[in-house]
Amino acid sequence: MxxxxxxxxxxxxALAVAISPGHITKYYFDTAHKFNLNYAPHLGMFKNLAGExxxxxxxxxxxxxxxxxxxxxxKGREPEVxxxxxQVMEKxxxxxxxxxxxxxxxxxxxxASGDPDKRKEFLKDIEASIEVAKRVNAKxxxxxxxxxxxxxxxxxxxxxxVESLKRASELLEPHDLTMVLEPLxxxxxxxxxxxxxxxxxxxxxxxxxxxxxxxxxxYHQQIQEGNLIPNIEKSWDEIAYFQIGDxxxxxxxxxxxxxxxxxxxxxxxxxxxxxxxxEHGNSIEGSTGEKSLIEAYKSVDNFL
Length: 304
Hints:
Mean pLDDT: 92
Number of strands: 10
Largest sheet: 6 strands, parallel
Radius of gyration: 19 Å
Shape: globular
Helix content: 25-40%
Protein backbone atom coordinates (compact mmCIF):
# COMPACT_ATOMS: atom_id res chain seq x y z
CA MET A 1 0.00 0.00 0.00
CA UNK A 2 1.41 3.40 -1.00
CA UNK A 3 0.09 6.81 0.02
CA UNK A 4 0.74 10.61 -0.03
CA UNK A 5 -0.31 14.20 1.11
CA UNK A 6 0.00 17.83 2.50
CA UNK A 7 0.74 21.51 1.85
CA UNK A 8 -0.90 24.38 3.52
CA UNK A 9 -4.67 25.24 3.71
CA UNK A 10 -7.87 23.82 5.05
CA UNK A 11 -7.90 26.25 8.00
CA UNK A 12 -5.78 24.07 10.26
CA UNK A 13 -2.80 26.34 10.67
CA ALA A 14 0.26 26.81 8.57
CA LEU A 15 2.50 23.95 7.67
CA ALA A 16 6.06 24.54 8.72
CA VAL A 17 9.52 23.10 8.77
CA ALA A 18 10.60 21.84 12.17
CA ILE A 19 13.77 20.45 13.62
CA SER A 20 13.17 18.70 16.92
CA PRO A 21 15.40 16.52 19.09
CA GLY A 22 16.00 13.20 17.44
CA HIS A 23 14.30 13.74 14.10
CA ILE A 24 13.40 16.13 11.32
CA THR A 25 9.82 16.44 10.14
CA LYS A 26 9.31 18.39 6.93
CA TYR A 27 5.69 19.36 7.43
CA TYR A 28 3.41 19.40 10.41
CA PHE A 29 0.39 21.20 11.80
CA ASP A 30 0.90 23.49 14.78
CA THR A 31 -0.58 20.89 17.12
CA ALA A 32 -1.04 17.14 16.73
CA HIS A 33 -4.66 16.08 16.48
CA LYS A 34 -6.12 14.19 19.45
CA PHE A 35 -7.89 11.16 17.99
CA ASN A 36 -10.46 9.23 20.01
CA LEU A 37 -9.32 5.86 18.67
CA ASN A 38 -5.95 4.29 17.85
CA TYR A 39 -5.84 4.52 14.06
CA ALA A 40 -2.72 2.89 12.59
CA PRO A 41 -1.22 4.10 9.29
CA HIS A 42 1.35 2.07 7.38
CA LEU A 43 4.53 2.82 5.49
CA GLY A 44 4.03 4.62 2.20
CA MET A 45 0.82 6.32 3.27
CA PHE A 46 2.57 9.68 3.80
CA LYS A 47 5.77 9.29 1.81
CA ASN A 48 5.32 12.53 -0.18
CA LEU A 49 5.30 14.57 3.00
CA ALA A 50 7.56 12.47 5.18
CA GLY A 51 9.95 11.07 2.59
CA GLU A 52 10.90 7.50 1.77
CA UNK A 53 12.74 6.72 5.00
CA UNK A 54 10.65 4.52 7.33
CA UNK A 55 11.90 6.38 10.40
CA UNK A 56 10.85 9.74 8.98
CA UNK A 57 7.45 8.28 8.14
CA UNK A 58 6.98 6.98 11.70
CA UNK A 59 7.88 10.37 13.11
CA UNK A 60 5.48 12.06 10.73
CA UNK A 61 2.63 9.78 11.83
CA UNK A 62 3.29 10.61 15.46
CA UNK A 63 3.49 14.32 14.67
CA UNK A 64 -0.02 14.18 13.18
CA UNK A 65 -1.41 12.61 16.35
CA UNK A 66 -1.61 8.96 15.29
CA UNK A 67 -0.93 6.60 18.18
CA UNK A 68 -0.41 3.27 16.40
CA UNK A 69 1.27 1.75 13.36
CA UNK A 70 0.86 -1.48 11.43
CA UNK A 71 3.10 -3.17 8.90
CA UNK A 72 2.02 -6.32 7.07
CA UNK A 73 5.58 -6.72 5.78
CA UNK A 74 7.41 -6.27 9.08
CA LYS A 75 8.42 -9.93 9.26
CA GLY A 76 10.34 -9.61 5.98
CA ARG A 77 12.43 -6.62 7.11
CA GLU A 78 15.98 -7.05 8.32
CA PRO A 79 16.25 -7.48 12.11
CA GLU A 80 18.30 -4.30 12.49
CA VAL A 81 15.55 -2.35 10.68
CA UNK A 82 12.90 -3.93 12.89
CA UNK A 83 14.83 -2.94 16.01
CA UNK A 84 15.36 0.63 14.82
CA UNK A 85 11.68 1.01 13.95
CA UNK A 86 10.68 -0.41 17.33
CA GLN A 87 12.92 2.09 19.13
CA VAL A 88 11.34 5.00 17.29
CA MET A 89 7.82 3.69 17.92
CA GLU A 90 8.52 3.38 21.62
CA LYS A 91 10.01 6.87 21.76
CA UNK A 92 7.10 8.44 19.86
CA UNK A 93 4.27 6.57 21.57
CA UNK A 94 3.24 4.47 18.57
CA UNK A 95 1.83 1.05 19.44
CA UNK A 96 2.80 -1.69 16.99
CA UNK A 97 -0.15 -3.32 15.27
CA UNK A 98 -0.34 -6.47 13.18
CA UNK A 99 2.14 -8.01 10.81
CA UNK A 100 1.46 -11.08 8.66
CA UNK A 101 2.60 -14.13 10.61
CA UNK A 102 2.96 -16.81 7.95
CA UNK A 103 2.92 -17.73 4.29
CA UNK A 104 -0.63 -17.28 3.00
CA UNK A 105 -1.92 -19.88 0.53
CA UNK A 106 -4.14 -17.89 -1.82
CA UNK A 107 -4.87 -20.68 -4.32
CA UNK A 108 -4.06 -23.91 -2.51
CA UNK A 109 -5.49 -25.55 0.59
CA UNK A 110 -3.09 -25.66 3.51
CA UNK A 111 -4.66 -25.53 6.99
CA ALA A 112 -8.04 -26.69 5.69
CA SER A 113 -6.43 -29.72 4.07
CA GLY A 114 -5.20 -31.32 7.27
CA ASP A 115 -1.87 -32.00 5.55
CA PRO A 116 0.65 -32.58 8.38
CA ASP A 117 3.48 -31.02 6.38
CA LYS A 118 1.44 -27.85 5.74
CA ARG A 119 0.60 -27.71 9.45
CA LYS A 120 4.24 -28.13 10.38
CA GLU A 121 5.20 -25.30 8.00
CA PHE A 122 2.53 -23.04 9.53
CA LEU A 123 3.68 -23.74 13.08
CA LYS A 124 7.28 -23.07 12.12
CA ASP A 125 6.18 -19.69 10.72
CA ILE A 126 4.38 -18.93 13.98
CA GLU A 127 7.52 -19.73 15.97
CA ALA A 128 9.53 -17.34 13.79
CA SER A 129 6.85 -14.67 14.18
CA ILE A 130 7.13 -14.87 17.95
CA GLU A 131 10.71 -13.66 17.66
CA VAL A 132 9.65 -10.82 15.33
CA ALA A 133 6.89 -9.81 17.74
CA LYS A 134 9.37 -9.61 20.61
CA ARG A 135 11.73 -7.51 18.50
CA VAL A 136 9.10 -4.93 17.53
CA ASN A 137 6.94 -5.03 20.69
CA ALA A 138 3.94 -6.42 18.81
CA LYS A 139 1.02 -8.13 20.50
CA UNK A 140 -0.95 -9.20 17.41
CA UNK A 141 -0.16 -11.03 14.19
CA UNK A 142 -2.43 -11.73 11.21
CA UNK A 143 -3.37 -15.29 10.24
CA UNK A 144 -5.30 -16.23 7.08
CA UNK A 145 -6.10 -19.98 6.99
CA UNK A 146 -5.74 -20.15 3.20
CA UNK A 147 -7.79 -21.67 0.39
CA UNK A 148 -10.63 -24.15 0.77
CA UNK A 149 -10.03 -27.82 0.13
CA UNK A 150 -12.55 -28.66 -2.60
CA UNK A 151 -12.19 -32.38 -1.93
CA UNK A 152 -13.37 -32.22 1.70
CA UNK A 153 -16.63 -31.27 3.38
CA UNK A 154 -16.51 -28.00 5.28
CA UNK A 155 -16.90 -29.71 8.66
CA UNK A 156 -13.71 -31.70 8.12
CA UNK A 157 -11.87 -28.61 6.90
CA UNK A 158 -12.99 -26.66 9.95
CA UNK A 159 -11.75 -29.41 12.24
CA UNK A 160 -8.34 -29.32 10.54
CA UNK A 161 -8.12 -25.53 10.85
CA VAL A 162 -9.15 -25.58 14.51
CA GLU A 163 -6.52 -28.20 15.33
CA SER A 164 -3.77 -26.15 13.65
CA LEU A 165 -4.86 -23.01 15.50
CA LYS A 166 -4.92 -24.85 18.82
CA ARG A 167 -1.34 -25.94 18.21
CA ALA A 168 -0.35 -22.38 17.29
CA SER A 169 -2.09 -21.02 20.40
CA GLU A 170 0.00 -23.31 22.56
CA LEU A 171 3.08 -21.62 21.11
CA LEU A 172 1.72 -18.08 21.51
CA GLU A 173 0.11 -18.22 24.95
CA PRO A 174 3.35 -18.29 27.02
CA HIS A 175 4.39 -15.06 25.29
CA ASP A 176 1.02 -13.28 25.70
CA LEU A 177 0.72 -12.95 21.91
CA THR A 178 -2.44 -13.16 19.82
CA MET A 179 -2.98 -14.30 16.27
CA VAL A 180 -5.98 -12.57 14.74
CA LEU A 181 -7.92 -14.48 12.08
CA GLU A 182 -8.93 -12.30 9.14
CA PRO A 183 -12.01 -13.24 7.10
CA LEU A 184 -11.57 -11.94 3.53
CA UNK A 185 -14.32 -11.14 1.06
CA UNK A 186 -15.28 -13.43 -1.84
CA UNK A 187 -14.94 -10.73 -4.49
CA UNK A 188 -11.31 -9.77 -3.92
CA UNK A 189 -10.18 -13.19 -2.66
CA UNK A 190 -12.40 -15.92 -4.11
CA UNK A 191 -12.06 -19.42 -2.76
CA UNK A 192 -10.62 -18.73 0.67
CA UNK A 193 -11.66 -20.87 3.60
CA UNK A 194 -12.41 -18.00 5.99
CA UNK A 195 -14.77 -15.31 4.70
CA UNK A 196 -17.35 -14.31 7.34
CA UNK A 197 -17.36 -13.06 10.92
CA UNK A 198 -19.74 -15.78 12.24
CA UNK A 199 -17.40 -18.41 10.85
CA UNK A 200 -14.40 -16.76 12.51
CA UNK A 201 -16.38 -16.51 15.74
CA UNK A 202 -17.22 -20.22 15.65
CA UNK A 203 -13.58 -21.13 15.08
CA UNK A 204 -12.30 -18.92 17.89
CA UNK A 205 -14.83 -20.42 20.28
CA UNK A 206 -13.68 -23.90 19.26
CA UNK A 207 -9.99 -23.04 19.73
CA UNK A 208 -10.86 -21.46 23.08
CA UNK A 209 -7.63 -19.53 23.63
CA UNK A 210 -6.78 -15.89 24.38
CA UNK A 211 -4.17 -16.25 21.63
CA UNK A 212 -6.76 -16.85 18.87
CA UNK A 213 -9.10 -13.96 18.12
CA UNK A 214 -10.76 -12.16 15.19
CA UNK A 215 -9.40 -9.39 13.00
CA UNK A 216 -12.62 -7.69 11.87
CA UNK A 217 -11.75 -5.92 8.61
CA UNK A 218 -14.64 -3.52 8.06
CA TYR A 219 -13.97 -3.24 4.32
CA HIS A 220 -14.02 -6.99 3.77
CA GLN A 221 -17.09 -7.56 5.88
CA GLN A 222 -19.06 -4.76 4.25
CA ILE A 223 -18.63 -6.64 0.96
CA GLN A 224 -19.04 -10.12 2.38
CA GLU A 225 -21.97 -9.69 4.74
CA GLY A 226 -22.80 -6.04 5.48
CA ASN A 227 -24.88 -5.48 8.62
CA LEU A 228 -21.68 -4.21 10.18
CA ILE A 229 -22.63 -3.01 13.65
CA PRO A 230 -24.89 -5.99 14.46
CA ASN A 231 -22.18 -8.42 13.31
CA ILE A 232 -19.54 -6.60 15.33
CA GLU A 233 -21.87 -6.80 18.32
CA LYS A 234 -22.42 -10.54 17.93
CA SER A 235 -18.69 -11.23 17.52
CA TRP A 236 -17.52 -8.68 20.06
CA ASP A 237 -16.05 -10.97 22.70
CA GLU A 238 -13.78 -12.61 20.12
CA ILE A 239 -12.67 -9.45 18.26
CA ALA A 240 -9.17 -8.23 19.13
CA TYR A 241 -8.36 -5.99 16.17
CA PHE A 242 -10.03 -3.93 13.43
CA GLN A 243 -8.94 -2.82 9.99
CA ILE A 244 -10.39 -0.03 7.89
CA GLY A 245 -11.20 0.67 4.25
CA ASP A 246 -14.23 2.17 2.52
CA UNK A 247 -16.23 0.40 -0.17
CA UNK A 248 -16.08 0.56 -3.12
CA UNK A 249 -12.44 1.30 -3.79
CA UNK A 250 -10.73 0.39 -0.52
CA UNK A 251 -9.71 3.97 0.17
CA UNK A 252 -10.00 6.17 3.25
CA UNK A 253 -13.30 6.70 5.11
CA UNK A 254 -15.75 9.18 3.49
CA UNK A 255 -14.90 7.96 -0.02
CA UNK A 256 -17.49 5.17 -0.14
CA UNK A 257 -20.73 3.87 1.33
CA UNK A 258 -19.74 3.01 4.90
CA UNK A 259 -20.90 5.37 7.65
CA UNK A 260 -17.58 5.25 9.46
CA UNK A 261 -18.47 7.96 11.96
CA UNK A 262 -21.28 5.77 13.32
CA UNK A 263 -19.18 2.60 13.19
CA UNK A 264 -16.33 4.27 15.07
CA UNK A 265 -18.75 5.77 17.58
CA UNK A 266 -20.13 2.31 18.27
CA UNK A 267 -16.66 0.80 18.68
CA UNK A 268 -15.60 3.64 20.98
CA UNK A 269 -18.75 3.33 23.08
CA UNK A 270 -18.01 -0.37 23.57
CA UNK A 271 -14.83 0.71 25.35
CA UNK A 272 -12.45 -0.54 22.67
CA UNK A 273 -8.87 0.55 23.34
CA UNK A 274 -7.13 -1.53 20.69
CA UNK A 275 -5.89 -0.68 17.21
CA UNK A 276 -7.74 0.07 13.98
CA UNK A 277 -5.37 -0.53 11.09
CA UNK A 278 -5.64 1.82 8.11
CA GLU A 279 -5.28 -0.94 5.52
CA HIS A 280 -6.37 1.02 2.47
CA GLY A 281 -5.11 3.26 -0.30
CA ASN A 282 -5.36 7.01 -0.76
CA SER A 283 -8.17 8.24 -2.99
CA ILE A 284 -6.06 11.16 -4.24
CA GLU A 285 -2.41 10.90 -5.20
CA GLY A 286 0.39 13.08 -3.94
CA SER A 287 0.60 15.49 -1.03
CA THR A 288 -2.95 16.66 -1.61
CA GLY A 289 -4.20 13.14 -1.12
CA GLU A 290 -2.25 12.72 2.10
CA LYS A 291 -3.74 15.87 3.55
CA SER A 292 -7.19 14.80 2.41
CA LEU A 293 -6.74 11.42 4.12
CA ILE A 294 -5.86 13.01 7.46
CA GLU A 295 -8.81 15.37 7.15
CA ALA A 296 -11.10 12.39 6.46
CA TYR A 297 -9.98 10.69 9.68
CA LYS A 298 -10.50 13.86 11.68
CA SER A 299 -13.99 14.07 10.24
CA VAL A 300 -15.10 10.51 11.01
CA ASP A 301 -13.40 10.58 14.41
CA ASN A 302 -15.56 13.55 15.38
CA PHE A 303 -18.33 11.47 16.97
CA LEU A 304 -18.32 12.61 20.61
